[in-house]
Amino acid sequence: MSLQVNCGVAMVGESQGHNVFVYGSLLADEVVRVLLNRLPPTAPATLSGYHRFKIKGRVYPAILPVENKKVTGRVLLGISGLELDVLDEFEDVEYTRSDVEVSLMDNSEKLEVHTYVWSNRDDPNLYGEWDFEEWKQVHMNDFVKMTDTFMREFELPEAKPRVQTYETFYKQENDKPLEP
To answer: Is 91 a catalytic residue?
Structure first.
């Protein structure tokens, strides 16, 4: 597997697409497949100087610069311009696309990539550390459904922003009566 990933990194340059470091819900192949209609090659990576926070009232994380911290994730390799547009829309106004340098875990190679940094550096709703394994068990299935709803609406002229889709979806989920 390492050989395949390393070949993917070698083949992906600026002219062949964008590389995007992901660290939250996009670690799940199921979410990426719904958004991009494919699974691009990936490489495990670490982003130094950042921390992955939980967000009060949200099931997805945020990252912000924090000294002496690091975030593990993966790089989506060879993302097209249209796919990057989809990711920008999905991340919505809550995040700012930023250029950062990550270290690939397989070979410690440094790679310049895009990532999505939380826009509000002083957000009082950020706390603790977000856990992907917990998210997978507790929230992934509903998040995939919400992402599917977002993508179906994304094609429409009156498409809602992802934050609005998220809030509408999770409000409906919370309004359902609990099973006895």
So the answer is: yes
Tokens found for residue 28: 């799940």
Distance CA 101, CA 125 (A): 27
The HSE-up count of residue 20 (CA atoms within 13 Å, CB side) is 26
How many whole angstroms from its chain centre is CA 59?
12
Burial class of residue 166, CB neighbours in 10 A (0-12, 13-18, 19+): buried
Query: pLDDT tens digits for 103-136?
Result: 999 888 999 999 999 999 999 999 999 999 999 9
Annotated catalytic residue, options 14, 89, 91, 153: 91
For 28, 37, 160, 162, the CA distances from 152, given in Å and listed in that order, are 19, 12, 10, 11
Q: Mind listing the pLDDT tens digit for each residue in 30-82?
A: 999 999 999 999 999 999 999 999 999 999 999 999 999 999 999 999 999 99
pTM for this model (two decimals): 0.83
For helices 140-154 and 29-36, give the axis angle rounded to 10 degrees: 10
